[in-house]
Amino acid sequence: MKKISLFSDQLRAVWMLAFVAIALVFATPLFLQPSNMLNVLLTAAVVALIAAGQTYVIILAEIDLSVGAVLGFSAITTASVISQYGVVAGLAAGLAVGALAGLINGVLVTKAKMPSFIATLATMSIFAGLTLQFSQGNPVKVTSDAFLALGQGNLLGIPTPIWIMLVLGVLFGYILARTRYGRELYATGDNADAARLAGISTDRVKIIAFMISGVLAATAGFILTARLGTAQPTAGTGLELAAIAAVIIGGTSLSGGRGALLGTLVGAVLLAMIDNGLNLLNVSPFLQSVVKGAVILLAVFVDRNSGVLMRIFRTGPAKASAPAAATAPGGGAPLLPKVAMLSVVGLLVVGAGVTTAVRSADNGAAGAQQKTATLVISTLNNPFFVSVGDGAKDQAAKLGVTLDVQNANNNDTASLNQATTALVKKPGVLLLDPTSSEAGGSITVKANQANVPVVAFDRAPDQGKLAAFIGYDAVQAGKNGAKALCEAVGGSGKVAELQGLLGTSVARDRSQGFKAGMKECPGVQVVAVQSADFDRGKALDVTTNILQANPGITGIYGANDEMALGAVAAVKSRGLLSSIRIVGNDGIGDALAAVKSGEMYATNAESPFALGQEVAKIGHAVATGEKVEESRVLQGKLVTGSGVDDFCSYLRGIGDTATCK
Q: pLDDT tens, 400-434?
């Protein structure tokens, strides 16, 4: 009988998982809570399914970058079909989309002889574009209880997504390890020419692998949609990178011919565990990416040096000089692997005991919870939200509140996972800036179930009970921008609109408001509407193209200041600042400086620092049981050149010393 090495490629990820678990067990008593363990597995489920399909492709020494876009396209298709024809038809349509996407990728790689990196990079863009076109950037709500059970249901106290991950992991792991197709896959990945000479249809093997990848991405889309209760057009953004990381950490070789699904699933759980642990430990959201990158580098290093490392672990470092130290009496198997395994188990047991003792000592610390708050913010890659975070920290420090800040990076999945982890810590209040109203609704419902009050800001969740809401009126912001632009161009001419990230609620609302405002300015014609993703660099390129196609433009509206500033750069490069008026929204420092210098006509300033202060103040009041106003809708202040100094004086007066420098 073949012996299983405890340090084989397939089990290497298990050891990494064990060491991370030991570190977290001793670092925080919250980690081993049963509810937190389920959170880790629940968070891992979506990435694990995508990574399982990616494993098939990478064993072939290929890559599939389109899986995130396929997930989004399948999710939108499924939700749309469910609303018309029912759950069965919706699931079938979603799987068909995934399989068809995989077939297209496979044919491009095998028949068109395109490198998989280039082919799937192109189809990623195509599928993402089709998703936005099909949905018009709008989420699709799902109300079917049968479908929602896929993401929100439980079986024997374990969430349904975990069962789906385990069942499909076993099924596709069996296919890979125990079937003829699996053997053909490994042979093709190891040496395609030799496999072809042996009679294997390598093209067929590759096409099937890409189809499996597409189907599993679609299945992950089902779970994510069911968890959120809505299909988001941008749902799969960035998940392809997480899936590839899980595959690499799991020991599958990028050069092909080697790998196993067990390692991939463990790799996905390891990534989820790292995210979970960093959140529990309140590690800076900026440093979390550094830690995850370091883990991936370690995994690749181990993969590239596996031969040397495995020989050390199998024989022990001192075998050459003292073989008895590493070998069991009687010439049995080396002792080092057994000792390492027993040490890991022992440390986990001791850690569990320490955790239990600490948690028991912490019982009755409800009063301390009133002094803790978790802020889940949509993004910290935008100056507006950075200022919101700064304001919240400033006010929390004044109130003596410990504030934990989490960055969702404009990703619904990340926002949901971070909030779920935060609820394990039972903070006095959850301060929530949803990436979308729909994702915010799912989070609010979970918080209600955990008896943690929620104060939402900037965007209102679409379901659940809030303790309070405060935010600026995004629709009115768009109307204010339209009014300012109309005035700037003298009530006539041609203008362009730069929209935000398609599929997000704030982009939809500001665009809706701008369109409504422009109807009150009939002499102005909107000749170009393009998305620049709330990004200054992209706005530079988009505006350059708009100016090329529409040389008579006299005004540009950016749905946020970052895009307006990108437009300024494009207009300035063509020497047109004197003839084109630009209006933005948010009131960030660079925009206020541009308005003062005349490069921008106006910005609809919203004082994010003050918003952050108010959020922290209201959150503290809620946590301590004070009565608060349930809803406050704020209005921005249109700031033109003559009003910049007064607005900056106001900001400095409330403690914001960073915006106006």
A: 998 988 888 878 888 888 888 888 888 899 999 98
Radius of gyration of the chain (CA): 27
Angle at 293 between CA 290 and CA 296, to 5 degrees: 155
The C-alpha atoms of residue 658 and residue 652 are separated, in whole angstroms, by: 9
Give the count of beta carbons closer than 10 Å to the beta carbon of residue 376. 28
pTM given for the model: 0.78
- Amino acid letter, residue 567: A
Asked if residues 223 and 150 have their Cβ atoms less than 8 Å apart, the reply is: yes
Pairing of strands 602-605, 553-558: unpaired
Q: How many CA atoms lie within 13 A of 146 on its CB side?
A: 9
DSSP string, 565-625: HHHHHHHHHTT-TTT-EEEEEE--HHHHHHHHHTSSSEEEE--HHHHHHHHHHHHHHHHTT
Q: Which amino acid is at 497?
A: E
CA 263 from centre of chain:
23
Please write the tens of the pLDDT for every residue from 556-576.
999 999 999 999 999 999 999
Long-range contacts at 119-123 (CB < 8 A, ≥ 24 apart):
120/63, 120/64, 120/65, 120/66, 121/65, 121/66, 123/66, 123/69
Chain centroid to Cα 273, Å, comes to 15
Label residue 310 exposed, middle or buried (CB < 10 Å: 0-12, 13-18, 19+). Answer: middle
**Tokens encoding 519:** 């109807």
CA–CA separation, 145 vs 161, rounded Å? 15
Are residues 472 and 611 in contact, defined by beta-carbon separation less than 8 angstroms? yes
Residue 620 burial (C-beta neighbours within 10 Å; 0-12, 13-18, 19+): buried
The two structure tokens encoding residue 179: 């079937």
Residue 136: closest CA among 559, 543, 536, 529: 529
E-only strand ranges, 433-567: 454-457, 468-472, 493-499, 524-531, 553-558
Closest-CA residue to 493 (of 434, 399, 436, 557) = 557
Buried/exposed 279-299: b ≥16 CB within 10 Å, e otherwise: bbebeebeebeeebeebbeeb
Helix (H, G, I), strand (E, B) or coil at 187: helix
Burial class (CB in 10 A: 0-12, 13-18, 19+), 136: exposed
> For the chain, how far is it from start to end, CA to CA, in angstroms?
73
